[in-house]
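Task: encode each sequence below as structure tokens.

Item 1
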Amino acid sequence: MPRQPLTGLFCVDKPAGITSRAVVDELSRLTRSRRVGHAGTLDPLATGVLLVCLGPATRLVSLAQSLPKRYLARFELGKVSDTDDSTGQVTVVEHTPLPNRDDLERLLPRYTGVISQVPPQYSAIKLGGQRAYDLARQGQQAPLEPRPVEVHALRLRAFESPSFELEIECGSGTYVRSIGRDLGRDLGCGAVMTSLERTAIGPFTLDRAVALESLDRHSWREALLAPVEIVSHFPRLICSDTDLDLLAEGRPVPLDVNSLPEFNREPTESAPRVALVSRSGDLLAVGELPAGHAAVQPRLVFPESLEAARVSP
């Protein structure tokens, strides 16, 4: 049987004070692999769930990034910042009295659903080949355009003026700092984010995350999760030997929709995706169901896993 390259993902509880890149570098050192990448940046201020993919699983980063996220964030009223959080240049806003809990709660529905959001000046968005944060550090005001983002839920978990805490469930591309900034603007007093914890990315919750400092050259293997977990929300098709041959040639795999009870038959704008797995549950490919739903068209194939499945008894 051919030897498969190391692949999988880590669900890490990122500590405060380091970058997401530093987590990637440490896991690259431990695993002795250059193919390591994270799925969704956390700023140095932030803690919590950070997904890091290893080996061929790095090809799944974009799918991991698209998973919904959940956060706990704390803010302080009566202040503004050039970074929209407490790490930047903070200015106190004269406003007496500060808004109360009811004032804040009345605003929350305005920031739920699909909303238009301007990213922070200190963000990784590229403008003319330069990152917005690089322009901001040079004293330039980046012309950032509002973008649609989706906030699934916004709950006030605590309020003790001038501080408050929000639980936020949102889609990819949402800036939590911007939510606090805009709430503060609408309240007329400003608000800056003082802490942020990501408690979940899709099914990867904080209670599943491992502390970075707990990993060493031996224990990291026990923390490595299977790539198929990234697509656990997709309908799953177990491939037959014939299917394996078709995948190896990049050809569509016939599908009986009735064999996938979890398949959503409602029409969508994009072709539904399917996880194609071996009998042992290893991810072989990610495919799409084009119009007609007669066969799964492979879009992302893992040749090493496919070859291992073809020679397995």
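Item 2
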Amino acid sequence: MQDLKTNIMRGKPLSVANKRWWLLLQVLLWLIGLFIFCCLIWVPTLGILLFWNILIPVAPALLVVALGLWRNICPLATTSLLPRKFNFSSNKIMPVRWQGRLQVLSVIALYALVPLRHALFNTNGLATAILLFCCALIAFGMGLFFDWKSGWCASLCPVHPVEKLYGSNTIASMPNAHCSECVNCSLPCPDSTPQMHPLITRKTFYHQISGLLTIGGLPGFIWGWFHVPDHHSWDGLMAVWNIYKYPLIGLLISLSLYLALQQLLKGPAVKKLIGFYAAAAVSCYYWYRIPALLGYGIFAEDGLLIDLTGYVSETMVTVICVLITCFFFWWLLIRKQREGSWVKRPEYKEK
């Protein structure tokens, strides 16, 4: 295996002025997150609109184009790193095997939580607030024990599997606005390894499983998710079956196809296959999400941001979706792959 330590982009230490700007952005995003959290509790209609119909729809495109920016300003990352920044973390290095296990758990959490949006989170602001609070509490707790991003951002965060799939060809490498020094807390470092993707390492069986589930399962899972309506009442076990049925069927179909194609391809063709699946996943998301935001969704008002059915034709919305699909396939599959990473690694800690 190529020496990952030598294949990492090194960045110059941030100047005091740049640190202040990044800190300002981190605090601003954290306060915006707190505002949305409060809205979810006390003004749930507004909170749901802001979180599920504005913030979340923007996130996949940001992960594809400028993942380094998101990794620098994510409010949960900021929360997780508070113990490290204020020097009350135990600063333990996450063992490789446990990191692999937590990455499998993060993929399972992603596939378990997202369908629950239809039964609970999409229509219940308090439930969404509790979900966010639990994620923040876990992220903070992981930061108490583990050094830098190894505990949450590179292991247990349920968004991290999607980051690795979507972020293989970002527009530029950002300065590292969180880590002041590198202690090799995560190998390979997802932030600083060029052309990061879910199968960049096969250190353990758990790493392989998490990578396969992410790459192969996500496109079909997304397709299935958009074919389930929001449930405004809980119908027991039947509701559970209804919200998980199509996402899991889609996941199994796309994963089976991926495994079959992987056996036929070798070398660079496998990486192209990963790029194809990444483009298919994010394109599928916007193919259904944009019409839903504008009033042309499959299920009436589910996921509606603003009803433009009387102002914009369905044909125009379809054209927009086609153009966006072409963009993502060009960006992730056809565009020349950058050699850069999401962010530039800081200097190694002196021993």
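Check on item 2: The CA atoms of residues 56 and 189 lie 25 Å apart. DSSP finds 14 helices and no strands in the chain.
End of task.
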